């Protein structure tokens, strides 16, 4: 289905370079006969107590008075006996009273307003709308506007969560920072069953909090990508049909992403790649897409499977762009440090062969979106019952 897109492929040079550097570092390791690859270490990890010069270093440790209060304005911390901030001259609050990020309830909604407001699937699947879907011309500019709208909505929700819960971002662990950011997009709940570390279903992420922090972080970014690819598709549909976004539209995009193994591969590969941006290569969970990829072998030409991965890779570039509006270089470094600190597994370099380093040109990407939606709508139209069951779940 997607094989016609091969002319639009080009190299994702950023990703290729990152993987090449890693492979080179492994080869060097082998050269120096070191048995274990040491992942990037932060400066603080290189430093050890033995390093300090005996004469110059005064290692006297003052007993530290625990700081239990903070200034809500400048965030300086104070011991129990203090009542006012000496700088801001305002009353101190207790650190213990700050709301825990995991207790914050959020149910963000990404509004899109259009001319029409549909209330049934029958109203959506009219011959007129089907023709619109078959003949639409989506432009990179419209696509970028959607990405921008998602960013604006999420960042204002993030600000709102910080303000209304009187959060002090500087005090948060890296897991809590990522969790709070995730809650600006979707509802997050906890689960303590099943094998998966997390699942995304119908605008909600369920995460297993028995896992170490590093794994919870990469799981959150993975599941958040599933949400975002669904959200992008929903907003594209609204733009083409000039309608409000509601649970009917979300049900259609959920159906489109799940009905065919090829589309599942696009969705899964995109989430896998986004997760990789916030982990280290060789450490991601490759099982997430390999299973789907294996099921397609023999059914589909190898080339088509690679193009589906290239489409997923191209989606992941814009999803990363959304996530990096908050998770910048500094926070990404913190995430990687946390992850490498928490995991005892060694990286699986042989898995790097599964990485796809191709992306579509702008024109090719628009073409891919057209293929996904035009075929998806045709199939969705024949599965109204399934759509209705999805719609109820939103
Ligand atoms: Zn102060
Ligand atoms: Zn997944």
Overview features:
three-stranded mixed sheet, 8 strands, mainly alpha, three-stranded antiparallel sheet, globular, binds zinc ion, 394 residues
Q: What do these coordinates show?
A:
With about 400 residues, the chain is mainly alpha-helical. The chain has one domain. It is about 50% helix and about 5% strand. It has 14 helices and eight strands. The protein has helices spanning about 15-30, 45, 120-125, 125-135, 140-165, 175-180, 215-240, 245-260, 260-275, 285-295, 300-325, 330-340, 360-380, 385-394, and strands at about 10, 65-70, 75-80, 95, 185-190, 200, 205-210, 360. It has a three-stranded antiparallel β-sheet, with no helix packed on it. Helix 6 (about 175-180) runs parallel beside helix 7 (about 215-240) and helix 8 packs across helix 9 (about 260-275). The chain starts with 8 loop residues before the first strand and ends with a helix. Bound molecules: zinc ion (2 copies). One zinc ion binds near residues 71, 74, 76 and 87.
| Rg, nearest Å | 24 Å
- Tally the beta strands: 8
Oligomer: single chain
User: pLDDT below 50 for ≥5 consecutive residues: which ranges?
Assistant: 33-55
- Relative strand content: 5-15%
* Relative helix content: 40-55%
Domains, number: 1
Pattern of helices and strands = EHHEEEHHHHEEEHHHHHHEHH
Bound molecules: zinc ion
